[in-house]
Amino acid sequence: MLGVTILGNNSAVPAFDRHPTAQVLTLRDHLYLIDCGEGTQIQIIRYKIRRSKIHRIFISHLHGDHYFGLIGLINSMGLLGRIQPLHIHGPEPLWQILQLQLKEADTHLPFDLQFHPLPQNGLVVEDRSSEVHCFKTDHRIECWGFFFKERRHTREGIVEGSSYAFCADTRYDPSLAEHIKGATWVYHEATYLDELKEAAYARYHSTSKQAAEIARLAGAGHLLIGHFSSKYADLEPFVKEARAVFPETYLALEGTTFCFGKSSDHPAMVK
Ligand SMILES: [Zn+2]
Ligand SMILES: [Zn+2]
């Protein structure tokens, strides 16, 4: 079973009761947190995510709207008596930031916090039931997308099941499609509508139409769009614009869980 719950879908600052980026991916018996914007632990409580089951955290880049909630979450896990190890995969300087925050607070965590710097490209981690790859995106600072793949064990050997590509923050970059070919679901940022595509380019972001173009190029099954600019209260124009290019597009609405089913052609179940 592969599914994703959206905890935050806004860019830069919280607005209209939308929060900065965070998503929880369920992959078989693992929970993976993808990005951890400010307020993520509040959203985890609101949407009844089992915090103790979060096994790995993947941080795409060091803009605050993608990791300012991390030290708060780690600290709470410690206060609540977590004992199982927590793995963090992120840009190398994140480890120094976390260590400084913990050291100056004289915080001694009761669990083992293991940090794994992201490689430039390629395999991040693998186990019996899954594999995770990363790839660079075109953003103002170093930024990585992640490709999560479910592994199935058959008599013929290991085959790939459902998959989820998280494209993080990025300018429109058709070469991204090569990294996420055939993904069951793709999440791609859509900070602006296409009428602001010059602003999107200047700020290293994408439009809704461009997100749809990437999903089409990748031959994806479905597209989730998020990271909306605080300029927009109404999100319906985003989905309308994207569906003109890629009909299987959905808004990454907070509190929504998208379940990917058992095969890539299984219809999306949204609850
Ligand atoms: Zn961002
Ligand atoms: Zn960013």
Distance between the termini: 15 Å
Helical fraction equals 10-25%
Approximate strand percentage = 25-35%
CATH topology: Metallo-beta-lactamase, Chain A
Describe the largest sheet. 8 strands, mixed
- Integer average pLDDT: 94
Instruction: Give the overall form.
Output: globular
CATH architecture: 4-Layer Sandwich
Backbone structural class: alpha/beta
Q: How many discrete structural domains?
A: 1
Placed side by side, the strands forming the largest sheet appear as 6-5-4-3-2-1-14-15
Oligomer: single chain
Tell me, what is the CATH class?
Answer: Alpha Beta
Unreliable stretches: 263-271
Give me the count of strands. 15
CATH superfamily: Ribonuclease Z/Hydroxyacylglutathione hydrolase-like
- Whole-angstrom Rg: 18 Å
Number of helices: 7
Descriptive overview:
With 271 residues, this protein is of the alpha/beta class. It has a single domain, classed as Metallo-beta-lactamase, Chain A, CATH 3.60.15.10. It has seven helices and 15 strands. The chain has an eight-stranded mixed beta sheet with strand order 6-5-4-3-2-1-14-15. It has a seven-stranded mixed beta sheet with strand order 7-8-9-10-11-12-13, with helices on one face. Helix 6 runs parallel beside helix 7. It is globular and about 50 Å long. The protein starts with a strand and ends with a strand. The model is unreliable at 263-271 (pLDDT under 50).
Q: What keyword list fits this structure?
A:
21% helix; 271 residues; 7 helices; disordered C terminus; 32% strand; eight-stranded mixed beta sheet; Metallo-beta-lactamase, Chain A
